[in-house]
Automatic annotation (TrEMBL), chains A, B:
Gene3D superfamilies: CBS-domain, MgtE N-terminal domain-like, SLC41 divalent cation transporters, integral membrane domain. The chain crosses the membrane at residues 282-301, 307-333, 354-376, 382-405, 417-444. InterPro entries: CBS_dom, CBS_dom_sf, Mg_transptr_MgtE_intracell_dom, MgtE_N_sf, MgtE_transporter, SLC41_membr_dom, SLC41_membr_dom_sf. The keyword Nucleus does not apply. Belongs to the SLC41A transporter family. Its main location: membrane. It comes from Dulcicalothrix desertica PCC 7102. PANTHER family: MAGNESIUM TRANSPORTER MGTE. This is Magnesium transporter MgtE. SUPFAM superfamilies: CBS-domain pair, MgtE membrane domain-like, MgtE N-terminal domain-like. It is found in: Cell membrane; Membrane.
Length: 451, 451
């Protein structure tokens, strides 16, 4: 509601002067959204209405493709100023998207300090702490007093991403302590930093995966975390706003992979070709798996011909078993994702899933038998009994697969979400059908249950 | 790794004195985890080793059932002290879980101030800003100077959840401005608060749903947000650590509902009965739906008897169509969940999904036809052609359902995740089978394609 109002209040303004006034008064992220949804040609016009500091703030909130567009249509001097003022982590993200030629040109025009900061970040692999950190943080020497520290913080420019923690380094720039601004404010100015700063510093390495950084910050309720290199030297910090984005991205990826959508870029508004590229491979994989499964099912065609009721029962069978598997799979993958469980808990979870599965198996098997009383003619009711038994078995197989597969992948240090829901469903189909059709065939040929 | 080390270092300690030393030195959350995983009888013993301030911090990190256990086994005076020192939002959460009798007893023993704070929070419905906010925040009167404000902040006790923003109220306690500690530090002490504090305050109402609070804080990169009542009076703040938990819970709920697991409490380690209660209803619902579908499919049994190949093709058919539907459903529900799209975008998304769906339909239909060349005898190849056509149609139906259903629910202000994956799969099965079997039957009886 709040956001809607903000956007509408912009859109309704006819007069250019008033628009200018509004655009400079609103929150940067709202102005960013407004500019993004304008027709391409009007974006640069609207952007030029912003005063310098607002322009810098808004620019960071634009999506990379709009940033690129503006870079093309603004004067070089303006562009350099914008890029120079971006925080190093946002700049690295933009440079990732821009054509190499443009990046090279921009890098040459940046100040030495900012050029080095950007080059450093771009040197770390994607998805690591080094890549998402910012180099703008507050650091203090151990020997300072609180009073000196506070005036040093006051003198540093306002650009630092957060001043709420200050990091204390020794003479070799090694990170040794951390102190919160809160502690600094609550202590007498002549006390030495080292007397109040804590030496229990929670930190990460440049190569720590970003998901792990997010987990640690969430666990310890931190609003910023320091990043050190292999020599324990302080090289950057990661702030809470980036962590929220990381956690959301991670959840989106888990959700999408479970549904058989690979990668994390298939947003609801992604271009159709991207969507096809993310989804079709899974669909074709499922079909390929069925070639295998079908060559095992095909020989049973005569069985199906003599008991056509099977074709009515099998889909129900398949869908319920698949759902049981996907339920267990989803709960396990999410549990791994939020760090609630680790591969060490495999047996514990399996025990729980099998206990719950046993109850479910009984309920589903019984329902199946009862249902087949509705569907089947009296002479075919034995099919329902077999179906009920296999459905119960299938339920237990389903929870076992749904738990074991992601746990196994995690133990092998692979992404547990590599096992998507459709994959589990397909496996369960193949296993269930095989058991079911074999039993039916056995009943027909050996027990002579049908006529 | 960091966490593992911390835990192991505790567990390995044999000597009680050293254990005491370790427990008082470690991060409260790690100590909380250590105590939680102890056998029930040892928990109170370990907890008693903590000094007062560590005990207070650790207590907040314990799960409600362990908190309850400790409340039972500690002296009343100790319990009251612990509960008195908890932050009001954590206390409200604990009281939610405790038996009413215990809550009543504890409330009576709290200080008036804390009792009122808790009663206020418990008065708001679950899942609203009022319920998750804390009443411990920094507020200032408009007329103060920066210097006066800073010494007021210094004088307030250290309990405030965050001192990084101070909220400025008028004489009626109405929230009028906000100022960051950063701004206070960077300005001369004799400047008046009202000259630097911003009047563009981003705030929420007590009844704002917690998910919306989380979205707003994420959007504007806030580390705290003020909560006002209907008269615009400041009543509390919500801090970023709570928001991260809300976002994660919300993602977990979306993921689980998509897989057909209702509610949000079915963690990987939930008790089996809870698991059954969360999952079985969906499974039975699916079976119930199939009763409807099957009565429509059952009449086709003679068709299946004469073309048993159908029973081999139908599962493939069903699984692929279902997957396509779940892919579209998942991307749409997640898009709604993270606020990337709103019901207004329905047509835009549908257009995109149908464009992508057309490509997918062609690819899948063609593959189906080719596959049936492998499976089918020459005289049955026409079945493959029909299967390919229906598969293509089914793909388009699938993306339409996967997009429309959650969008429609959202427009009706219902939870879009009410439509789970299994539900969509079941619908698609019913629709697909019906079309397929009707066409096959038409081909057999009217076109006489078989023999």
């Amino acid at each position: 509601m709040l956001l809607e109002d903000a956007r509408n209040s912009v859109v309704d303004v006819a007069d250019l002067n008033q628009l200018k006034h509004e655009l400079n008064r609103l929150q940067p992220v709202d102005v960013g959204d407004y500019i993004t949804q304008l027709p391409e040609k009007q974006r640069a016009i609207a952007f030029r209405l912003l005063n310098k500091s607002q322009a810098i703030d808004v620019f960071e909130y634009l999506p990379p493709e709009v940033q690129e567009e503006l870079i093309d249509s603004l004067h070089d001097a303006q562009v350099v100023q914008l890029v120079e003022e971006m925080s190093p982590d946002d700049r690295a993200e933009l440079f990732d998207e821009l054509p190499a030629k443009v990046v090279k040109r921009l890098l040459q025009q940046l100040s030495t300090e900012q050029r080095q900061a950007t080059a450093t970040l771009l040197g770390y692999p994607e998805g690591t702490a080094g890549r998402v950190m910012t180099t703008e943080y507050v650091w203090l020497r151990e020997g300072l007093t609180i009073g000196e520290a506070l005036s040093k913080i006051r003198r540093q420019d306002e650009d630092k991403e957060t001043i709420y923690y200050a990091y204390v380094t020794d003479d070799n720039r090694k990170l040794v302590r951390v102190v919160s601004l809160r502690q600094l404010l609550f202590t007498f100015p002549d006390v030495l930093i080292r007397e109040i700063a804590s030496d229990r510093v929670i930190k990460v390495q440049t190569e720590t995966p970003q998901e792990e950084v997010a987990r640690i910050m969430k666990r310890y309720d931190l609003i910023a975390i320091p990043v050190v290199d292999r020599e324990e030297r302080l090289v950057g910090i990661i702030t809470i706003d980036d962590v929220i984005d990381i956690l959301e991205e991670e959840a989106t990826e888990d959700i999408q992979k479970l549904a058989g959508v690979s990668g994390g870029d298939d947003g609801a508004l992604a271009p159709p070709l991207m969507t096809i590229r993310k989804r079709l491979p899974w669909l074709l994989a499922i079909m390929a798996l069925y070639i295998g499964a079908s060559s095992a099912i095909a020989p049973f065609q005569p069985v199906i011909a003599s008991v056509p009721l099977l074709a009515v029962i099998m889909p129900l069978f398949s869908n319920t078993g698949g759902t049981v598997g996907v339920q267990a799979l989803t709960v396990t993958i999410r549990g791994l994702g939020i760090g609630e469980v680790t591969p060490k808990d495999t047996l514990k979870i399996l025990k729980k899933e099998l206990t719950a599965g046993l109850g479910t198996a009984l309920a589903l098997g019984t329902t199946m038998v009862l249902l087949s009383m509705i569907w089947a003619s009296p002479s075919e009711r034995w099919v329902g009994v077999i179906a009920g038994m296999v459905m119960a078995t299938n339920t237990l197989v389903a929870v076992t697969l749904g738990t074991f597969l992601p746990m196994g992948l995690k133990r092998l240090k692979l992404d547990p979400a590599l096992i998507s829901g459709p994959l589990v469903t397909t496996m369960l189909d193949a296993i269930g059908f095989m058991i079911f059709l074999s039993l039916i065939s056995f009943a027909l040929n050996v027990l002579h249950l049908q006529h």
